[in-house]
Design brief:
The protein is α/β, with parallel strands linked by helices and 122 residues long. The protein has one domain. The chain is 26% helix and 20% strand. It contains three helices and four strands; from the N terminus they run βαβββαα. A four-stranded parallel β-sheet has the order 1-2-3-4, with helices on both faces. Helix 1 links the parallel strand 1 and strand 2. The longest helix has 16 residues. It starts with 9 loop residues before the first strand and ends with a helix. 29% of the residues are buried.
Amino acid sequence: MRAHPKARQVCIGHSMGCYAVTRLAARTPDVEWDLMIAFEPAPAYNSLWLFPCARLRGNVKRAICFRSTNWLNPIVHGRLRPARDFAGDLKIVETNKLHYRIASDHDAHALCIDAVRALAAA
């Protein structure tokens, strides 16, 4: 990403992968992240809530977070949260898909593809 500073930077994570992408963004404050997509952040399972996702900082322009409430998980998974310096756009998309199915949901994919295409057109 540093080798191509003019390229659009997009990162996507599912479940614990959301923890990874938010940490990546937090640890690279010199990189401007154009789009971050989080499918069902679940950083706290089996960790006693010790590993929350890093808050979105000023280097993240746009973020989309898919969260599910359903019969198997009535308390919902985690969410992305802004830090004080976050000035971007954060969209939370509520759904009822099961955790293992959210990352392959066609409607979610369409929204993500549209977001990436909007970057390409800008």
